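A quick aside before the break. I want you to see a complete sequence-to-structure record at least once, exactly as it would be stored in a machine-readable document. Don't worry about memorizing anything.
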Amino acid sequence: MDKMRLAAIVTLLGGMNVFADDCGCAPPPTRTLCCQIPQIAAYNAPSFIDACMDLYCTVDFTYWSASQENLELGVVSNVASGLVAIDGTLVNQNSDYAPGFQLGFGADLGFDNWNFFTEYTWFRNTDTVTTSLDPAGTKVLYPVRGKPLGPFDRYFYGHERWNLGMDFIDAEIGRAYYVGSALTFHPTLGLRGAFIRQELNVNYLNEASGLPAHNTHISQSAHSWGIGPRVGFCSSWMLGKGFRLYGDGSGDLLFTRYTTLNFNQKISNEVNAIIDGGIIDIKERNIGYLRTHLDLELGFGWGAYFYANRYHFDIAAGYDFQVFFNQNVFRRFTDDSSYSSILPNGDLFIQGLTISAQFDF
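That is the input. The structure line, written in C-alpha cells, reads:
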C-alpha cells in the first residue's frame, strides 16, 4: 500500500511539471521598463543669446493681406418678368496686401533664464470692389447690404470700400531651452491688448430707364478694444552655421468691448437729393463679447555674434497665418417691412510675409 501511494504522488508531481511547462509559467526573462522613473534628475538646458547687457530689440516688416467673411457687395443676375433668375453671381471683396510693422523690446530677467518681451503691432488695410453693368443689358445688381427696399431694390452700379485698422500691444514672459542637440522650445505666457477698427462704405447707383431712379448710400463702423491672456510656443531647429528653421504659434482669448457700432443708410434721387423718409441711423454702444485669435508662422532665419561676441544679430523671414473669430459685426437687415436684422459674425483672416530683424546687446 505504501508503495502504491508513493507511485501515485510521483505521477501527480510529474503531471504538474508537464502542465506548468505547457502553460508557459516559467519565470519571465529580465526586460527594461519603458516608463521607469529616471535615477538622475533631468533639467532642460537653457537656450539664450549671451550678449553684454542681456537686452534686445526687434523690428519687423509685415506685408499682410486681410479678408473677412460676409462682406459681399451683391448678386448680379438676369431679370425675368421682374423675378431673379437662378443664374446669379455673388460679388465678393478683393483681398489686397498692405505693409505694416512691429516693434519689440526684450530683456533677460536674471532668474532661471526667464525673459520678458513686449511688442507693438501696426497694420492698416483697404479693400474695394466695384460692379458696373450696362443699363441697356439684361443683368442688374441686387444688393445684400443695407435695409431692403422691396421691388425697387436693384441697381446697375455698386461700389464697396472696407477699411481695417489694427493695433496690438503684447507683453509676455518665457524661457527658451534645448530639448535635443539641435532643437529648442520657447513657451510664453502673457497679455494682449487689441484695438480693431472697421469701416464699411457702400454705394448703389441706379439712373437707368425702366427702373425708378434712386441711389443708396450705406456706411457702417465697428470700433473695439480688447484685453486678455495670451499663450505662445516657439520652436527652432538648428541647421548649423547660424541657420535655422522655426515655427511659432500663439493664441489669445480677449474680452472685447465694442464702443461704436453704427449703421447709416441714405436714399437719394437722381439729383442726389435725400428722399423723404430715406434716412436710417442706428447706433449701438458698449457691447461686450469674448473673442478668440490664433496665429501660426513658419519661416527660416540666420544669426551670428560679432564684435568679439559682445553683440548678436539675427534676421528671419516667415509666412504668417492668423484668424480672428467672429469679428464681422456689421448688421444685416433681412426684410423691407421691419427692422429685423442679424449679425453675420464672419471671421477675419490675416496672412502674409513677415521679415524680422533682432539685435542683442
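Two observations worth writing down. The helical segments are 2-22. Residues 64 and 182 are 31 Å apart (CA to CA). We'll return to this after the break.
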